[in-house]
Amino acid sequence: MILLDGKKVSNDIKNEIAEEVRKMKVQGEKVPHLAAIIVGNDGASLTYVASKVKACERVGFESTMVRMSNTTSEIELLDKIEELNQDDDIDGFIIQLPLPKQINTQKVLMAVDPDKDVDGFHPMNFGKMALDMSTFIPATPFGILELLDRYHVETKGKHTVVIGRSHIVGRPMSILMGRKGFPGNSTVTITHSHTKNITQITSQADIIISALGVPNFLKAEMVKDDVVIIDVGITRVVDETSPKGYVITGDVDFENVSKKASFITPVPGGVGPMTIAMLLKNTLLARELRH
Ligand SMILES: Nc1nc(=O)c2c([nH]1)NC[C@@H]1CN(c3ccc(C(=O)N[C@@H](CCC(=O)O)C(=O)O)cc3)C=[N+]21
Protein backbone atom coordinates (compact mmCIF):
# COMPACT_ATOMS: atom_id res chain seq x y z
CA MET A 1 0.00 0.00 0.00
CA ILE A 2 1.31 3.44 -0.94
CA LEU A 3 0.13 6.48 0.98
CA LEU A 4 -0.86 9.42 -1.26
CA ASP A 5 0.81 12.01 0.94
CA GLY A 6 -1.10 15.23 0.37
CA LYS A 7 0.82 17.01 3.07
CA LYS A 8 4.14 16.36 1.38
CA VAL A 9 2.92 17.02 -2.17
CA SER A 10 1.15 20.23 -1.14
CA ASN A 11 4.39 21.40 0.47
CA ASP A 12 6.29 20.65 -2.75
CA ILE A 13 3.71 22.68 -4.70
CA LYS A 14 3.90 25.57 -2.24
CA ASN A 15 7.69 25.59 -2.61
CA GLU A 16 7.32 25.72 -6.40
CA ILE A 17 4.87 28.61 -6.11
CA ALA A 18 7.10 30.46 -3.61
CA GLU A 19 9.91 30.19 -6.16
CA GLU A 20 7.68 31.78 -8.82
CA VAL A 21 6.82 34.58 -6.41
CA ARG A 22 10.50 35.20 -5.69
CA LYS A 23 11.11 35.62 -9.42
CA MET A 24 8.21 38.08 -9.67
CA LYS A 25 9.65 40.15 -6.85
CA VAL A 26 13.10 40.18 -8.44
CA GLN A 27 11.53 41.54 -11.60
CA GLY A 28 9.65 44.16 -9.62
CA GLU A 29 6.27 42.65 -10.48
CA LYS A 30 3.25 42.73 -8.24
CA VAL A 31 2.70 39.46 -6.33
CA PRO A 32 -0.62 37.56 -6.57
CA HIS A 33 -3.38 38.77 -4.25
CA LEU A 34 -6.15 36.44 -3.06
CA ALA A 35 -9.25 37.58 -1.19
CA ALA A 36 -11.67 35.36 0.72
CA ILE A 37 -15.16 36.37 1.78
CA ILE A 38 -16.54 34.61 4.80
CA VAL A 39 -20.14 35.15 5.86
CA GLY A 40 -20.93 34.12 9.44
CA ASN A 41 -18.70 32.71 12.11
CA ASP A 42 -18.97 28.96 11.69
CA GLY A 43 -15.92 27.39 13.36
CA ALA A 44 -14.96 25.03 10.57
CA SER A 45 -15.27 27.69 7.84
CA LEU A 46 -13.13 30.08 9.84
CA THR A 47 -10.43 27.44 10.26
CA TYR A 48 -10.37 26.73 6.52
CA VAL A 49 -10.20 30.39 5.54
CA ALA A 50 -7.50 30.99 8.16
CA SER A 51 -5.42 28.19 6.65
CA LYS A 52 -5.87 29.71 3.18
CA VAL A 53 -4.60 33.06 4.46
CA LYS A 54 -1.68 31.35 6.19
CA ALA A 55 -0.82 29.50 2.97
CA CYS A 56 -0.78 32.84 1.11
CA GLU A 57 1.73 34.23 3.59
CA ARG A 58 3.85 31.10 3.29
CA VAL A 59 4.29 31.48 -0.50
CA GLY A 60 4.54 35.29 -0.49
CA PHE A 61 1.06 36.13 -1.83
CA GLU A 62 -0.92 39.04 -0.54
CA SER A 63 -4.24 38.07 1.02
CA THR A 64 -7.35 39.80 2.29
CA MET A 65 -9.97 38.23 4.49
CA VAL A 66 -13.40 39.87 4.24
CA ARG A 67 -15.60 38.98 7.19
CA MET A 68 -19.35 39.62 7.03
CA SER A 69 -21.96 38.90 9.71
CA ASN A 70 -24.26 35.89 9.32
CA THR A 71 -27.24 38.23 8.93
CA THR A 72 -25.72 39.70 5.75
CA SER A 73 -28.31 40.09 3.00
CA GLU A 74 -27.86 38.80 -0.53
CA ILE A 75 -27.67 42.38 -1.84
CA GLU A 76 -24.90 43.28 0.61
CA LEU A 77 -22.90 40.24 -0.44
CA LEU A 78 -23.46 40.99 -4.14
CA ASP A 79 -22.21 44.55 -3.52
CA LYS A 80 -19.06 43.23 -1.87
CA ILE A 81 -18.48 40.84 -4.78
CA GLU A 82 -18.84 43.69 -7.25
CA GLU A 83 -16.31 45.69 -5.23
CA LEU A 84 -13.79 42.82 -5.48
CA ASN A 85 -14.57 42.34 -9.19
CA GLN A 86 -13.68 46.00 -9.77
CA ASP A 87 -10.68 46.10 -7.42
CA ASP A 88 -7.65 46.04 -9.68
CA ASP A 89 -5.43 44.98 -6.82
CA ILE A 90 -7.27 41.65 -6.30
CA ASP A 91 -6.30 38.86 -8.73
CA GLY A 92 -8.74 36.26 -7.46
CA PHE A 93 -11.25 35.68 -4.70
CA ILE A 94 -13.42 33.01 -3.20
CA ILE A 95 -16.65 33.01 -1.24
CA GLN A 96 -16.37 30.42 1.48
CA LEU A 97 -19.26 27.93 1.35
CA PRO A 98 -21.75 27.09 2.76
CA LEU A 99 -23.57 30.44 2.90
CA PRO A 100 -26.39 31.32 5.35
CA LYS A 101 -29.83 30.29 4.12
CA GLN A 102 -31.08 33.81 3.28
CA ILE A 103 -28.52 33.89 0.46
CA ASN A 104 -28.96 32.16 -2.90
CA THR A 105 -25.60 30.49 -3.48
CA GLN A 106 -26.02 30.01 -7.23
CA LYS A 107 -26.89 33.66 -7.71
CA VAL A 108 -23.86 34.74 -5.69
CA LEU A 109 -21.45 32.47 -7.56
CA MET A 110 -22.70 33.84 -10.87
CA ALA A 111 -21.81 37.37 -9.76
CA VAL A 112 -18.09 36.57 -9.52
CA ASP A 113 -15.98 37.80 -12.44
CA PRO A 114 -15.06 34.49 -14.19
CA ASP A 115 -11.47 35.74 -14.57
CA LYS A 116 -11.19 36.11 -10.78
CA ASP A 117 -13.10 32.91 -9.97
CA VAL A 118 -10.19 30.91 -8.51
CA ASP A 119 -12.65 28.37 -7.00
CA GLY A 120 -13.86 27.58 -10.53
CA PHE A 121 -17.50 27.64 -9.38
CA HIS A 122 -18.89 30.10 -11.97
CA PRO A 123 -21.06 28.31 -14.59
CA MET A 124 -18.80 29.74 -17.32
CA ASN A 125 -15.74 28.09 -15.81
CA PHE A 126 -17.59 24.88 -14.99
CA GLY A 127 -18.74 24.75 -18.62
CA LYS A 128 -15.23 25.35 -19.90
CA MET A 129 -13.97 22.54 -17.70
CA ALA A 130 -16.59 20.17 -19.11
CA LEU A 131 -15.58 21.19 -22.64
CA ASP A 132 -11.83 20.62 -22.05
CA MET A 133 -11.08 24.33 -22.38
CA SER A 134 -8.40 25.84 -20.15
CA THR A 135 -9.93 27.36 -17.04
CA PHE A 136 -9.87 27.32 -13.23
CA ILE A 137 -10.51 23.77 -12.03
CA PRO A 138 -12.15 23.65 -8.57
CA ALA A 139 -9.39 23.28 -5.98
CA THR A 140 -10.36 19.93 -4.45
CA PRO A 141 -10.81 18.07 -7.77
CA PHE A 142 -7.68 19.81 -9.10
CA GLY A 143 -5.76 18.63 -6.02
CA ILE A 144 -6.93 15.05 -6.54
CA LEU A 145 -5.78 15.11 -10.19
CA GLU A 146 -2.42 16.50 -9.08
CA LEU A 147 -1.98 13.74 -6.47
CA LEU A 148 -2.81 11.02 -9.01
CA ASP A 149 -0.39 12.65 -11.46
CA ARG A 150 2.53 13.01 -9.05
CA TYR A 151 2.21 9.38 -7.88
CA HIS A 152 1.78 8.15 -11.49
CA VAL A 153 -1.47 6.39 -10.65
CA GLU A 154 -2.85 4.84 -13.86
CA THR A 155 -6.37 6.07 -14.64
CA LYS A 156 -6.69 5.18 -18.34
CA GLY A 157 -9.29 2.49 -18.92
CA LYS A 158 -9.89 2.11 -15.18
CA HIS A 159 -13.33 2.05 -13.62
CA THR A 160 -13.63 5.11 -11.37
CA VAL A 161 -16.53 5.26 -8.94
CA VAL A 162 -17.35 8.69 -7.51
CA ILE A 163 -19.49 8.73 -4.36
CA GLY A 164 -21.44 11.98 -4.06
CA ARG A 165 -22.62 14.49 -6.67
CA SER A 166 -21.91 17.84 -5.00
CA HIS A 167 -21.15 20.78 -7.28
CA ILE A 168 -17.80 21.26 -5.52
CA VAL A 169 -16.36 17.75 -5.64
CA GLY A 170 -18.41 14.80 -6.92
CA ARG A 171 -19.87 16.33 -10.09
CA PRO A 172 -16.65 17.99 -11.35
CA MET A 173 -14.60 14.94 -10.38
CA SER A 174 -16.86 12.66 -12.43
CA ILE A 175 -16.32 14.91 -15.47
CA LEU A 176 -12.56 15.25 -15.01
CA MET A 177 -11.87 11.53 -14.61
CA GLY A 178 -13.68 10.79 -17.87
CA ARG A 179 -11.97 13.51 -19.89
CA LYS A 180 -9.35 12.81 -22.51
CA GLY A 181 -5.81 13.01 -21.16
CA PHE A 182 -4.00 12.18 -17.96
CA PRO A 183 -5.28 11.87 -15.34
CA GLY A 184 -8.49 10.93 -17.11
CA ASN A 185 -9.70 8.39 -19.67
CA SER A 186 -11.49 6.51 -16.91
CA THR A 187 -14.87 4.85 -17.20
CA VAL A 188 -16.84 6.77 -14.60
CA THR A 189 -19.79 5.80 -12.43
CA ILE A 190 -21.30 8.45 -10.19
CA THR A 191 -23.31 7.33 -7.17
CA HIS A 192 -25.50 9.30 -4.76
CA SER A 193 -28.24 9.02 -2.15
CA HIS A 194 -30.63 7.27 -4.58
CA THR A 195 -28.11 4.68 -5.74
CA LYS A 196 -29.25 1.11 -5.11
CA ASN A 197 -26.87 -1.60 -3.94
CA ILE A 198 -23.81 0.63 -3.77
CA THR A 199 -21.58 -2.24 -2.61
CA GLN A 200 -22.14 -4.01 -5.91
CA ILE A 201 -20.80 -0.88 -7.65
CA THR A 202 -17.90 -0.02 -5.33
CA SER A 203 -16.69 -3.63 -5.35
CA GLN A 204 -16.10 -3.32 -9.11
CA ALA A 205 -14.17 -0.07 -8.85
CA ASP A 206 -10.47 0.30 -9.66
CA ILE A 207 -10.54 3.83 -8.22
CA ILE A 208 -12.99 5.16 -5.60
CA ILE A 209 -13.35 8.87 -4.91
CA SER A 210 -15.56 9.33 -1.87
CA ALA A 211 -17.01 12.78 -1.20
CA LEU A 212 -19.96 11.87 0.96
CA GLY A 213 -19.29 13.25 4.44
CA VAL A 214 -20.31 10.11 6.32
CA PRO A 215 -17.49 9.03 8.67
CA ASN A 216 -16.15 5.51 8.02
CA PHE A 217 -18.82 4.81 5.39
CA LEU A 218 -16.60 2.80 3.04
CA LYS A 219 -15.69 -0.59 4.55
CA ALA A 220 -13.17 -3.20 3.45
CA GLU A 221 -15.99 -5.55 2.34
CA MET A 222 -17.11 -2.94 -0.21
CA VAL A 223 -13.86 -2.78 -2.18
CA LYS A 224 -11.70 -5.15 -4.21
CA ASP A 225 -7.99 -5.84 -3.77
CA ASP A 226 -5.57 -3.19 -5.08
CA VAL A 227 -8.23 -0.48 -5.26
CA VAL A 228 -7.09 3.17 -5.33
CA ILE A 229 -8.85 5.18 -2.60
CA ILE A 230 -9.31 8.96 -2.56
CA ASP A 231 -11.03 10.03 0.65
CA VAL A 232 -12.51 13.53 0.43
CA GLY A 233 -14.49 13.26 3.69
CA ILE A 234 -13.54 15.73 6.45
CA THR A 235 -16.24 15.34 9.10
CA ARG A 236 -15.49 16.69 12.57
CA VAL A 237 -16.31 13.94 15.04
CA VAL A 238 -16.52 14.89 18.72
CA ASP A 239 -13.67 13.39 20.72
CA GLU A 240 -13.11 14.62 24.28
CA THR A 241 -9.65 13.06 24.44
CA SER A 242 -8.20 15.13 21.58
CA PRO A 243 -6.89 18.67 22.24
CA LYS A 244 -9.35 20.36 19.84
CA GLY A 245 -12.31 18.36 21.16
CA TYR A 246 -12.87 16.71 17.77
CA VAL A 247 -11.07 14.58 15.24
CA ILE A 248 -11.24 15.02 11.45
CA THR A 249 -12.69 11.77 10.12
CA GLY A 250 -12.82 10.60 6.52
CA ASP A 251 -15.46 8.61 4.62
CA VAL A 252 -13.20 5.57 4.58
CA ASP A 253 -12.56 2.98 7.29
CA PHE A 254 -8.85 3.57 6.79
CA GLU A 255 -7.56 0.89 9.14
CA ASN A 256 -9.23 -1.95 7.23
CA VAL A 257 -9.56 -0.55 3.71
CA SER A 258 -5.86 0.41 3.58
CA LYS A 259 -4.96 -3.30 3.89
CA LYS A 260 -6.60 -3.97 0.51
CA ALA A 261 -5.68 -0.73 -1.28
CA SER A 262 -2.79 -0.14 -3.66
CA PHE A 263 -2.90 3.63 -3.06
CA ILE A 264 -4.86 5.53 -0.41
CA THR A 265 -5.14 9.12 0.87
CA PRO A 266 -5.06 9.61 4.65
CA VAL A 267 -7.42 11.97 6.53
CA PRO A 268 -6.10 14.37 7.64
CA GLY A 269 -3.06 14.94 5.44
CA GLY A 270 -4.53 13.81 2.11
CA VAL A 271 -6.95 15.77 -0.04
CA GLY A 272 -7.40 18.70 2.43
CA PRO A 273 -3.91 20.18 2.13
CA MET A 274 -4.00 19.64 -1.64
CA THR A 275 -7.13 21.81 -1.85
CA ILE A 276 -5.25 24.73 -0.30
CA ALA A 277 -2.21 24.27 -2.57
CA MET A 278 -4.35 24.22 -5.72
CA LEU A 279 -6.22 27.35 -4.67
CA LEU A 280 -2.81 29.05 -4.58
CA LYS A 281 -2.03 27.60 -8.00
CA ASN A 282 -5.30 28.98 -9.40
CA THR A 283 -4.50 32.38 -7.87
CA LEU A 284 -1.12 32.37 -9.58
CA LEU A 285 -2.89 31.53 -12.85
CA ALA A 286 -5.41 34.35 -12.28
CA ARG A 287 -2.60 36.83 -11.83
CA GLU A 288 -0.88 35.61 -15.00
CA LEU A 289 -4.16 35.99 -16.93
CA ARG A 290 -4.53 39.57 -15.76
CA HIS A 291 -0.96 40.82 -16.35
N1 LIG B 1 -15.57 28.46 -1.61
C1 LIG B 1 -15.06 27.41 -0.99
N2 LIG B 1 -13.92 26.88 -1.44
C2 LIG B 1 -13.36 25.80 -0.80
O1 LIG B 1 -12.30 25.29 -1.22
C3 LIG B 1 -14.03 25.26 0.35
C4 LIG B 1 -15.22 25.86 0.75
N3 LIG B 1 -15.73 26.92 0.05
N4 LIG B 1 -15.91 25.38 1.81
C5 LIG B 1 -15.41 24.28 2.61
C6 LIG B 1 -14.49 23.36 1.84
C7 LIG B 1 -13.57 22.54 2.70
N5 LIG B 1 -12.22 22.94 2.35
C8 LIG B 1 -11.06 22.46 2.96
C9 LIG B 1 -9.84 23.07 2.86
C10 LIG B 1 -8.72 22.58 3.54
C11 LIG B 1 -8.81 21.47 4.34
C12 LIG B 1 -7.62 20.99 5.10
O2 LIG B 1 -6.55 21.55 5.01
N6 LIG B 1 -7.76 19.92 5.88
C13 LIG B 1 -6.70 19.36 6.71
C14 LIG B 1 -7.12 19.34 8.17
C15 LIG B 1 -7.47 20.69 8.67
C16 LIG B 1 -8.01 20.65 10.09
O3 LIG B 1 -7.29 20.13 10.98
O4 LIG B 1 -9.15 21.11 10.30
C17 LIG B 1 -6.42 17.94 6.28
O5 LIG B 1 -7.33 17.29 5.73
O6 LIG B 1 -5.33 17.47 6.53
C18 LIG B 1 -10.02 20.83 4.45
C19 LIG B 1 -11.13 21.32 3.75
C20 LIG B 1 -12.28 23.93 1.42
N7 LIG B 1 -13.54 24.18 1.06
Structure characterization notes:
The chain is α/β, with parallel strands linked by helices. It folds into two domains: 87 residues, 3-Layer(aba) Sandwich (Rossmann fold); 135 residues, NAD(P)-binding Rossmann-like Domain (Rossmann fold, 3-Layer(aba) Sandwich), CATH 3.40.50. A six-stranded parallel sheet has the order 1-11-8-7-5-6. Helix 1 runs parallel beside helix 10, helix 2 packs across helix 10 and helix 6 crosses helix 10. The mean pLDDT is 97. The structure holds 5,10-Methenyltetrahydrofolate. The site of 5,10-Methenyltetrahydrofolate has 18 residues, from helix 2, strand 4 and helix 10. 5,10-Methenyltetrahydrofolate (GUE) binds next to helix 2, strand 4 and helix 10. Homodimer. This is Bifunctional protein FolD. Its EC number is 1.5.1.5, 3.5.4.9.
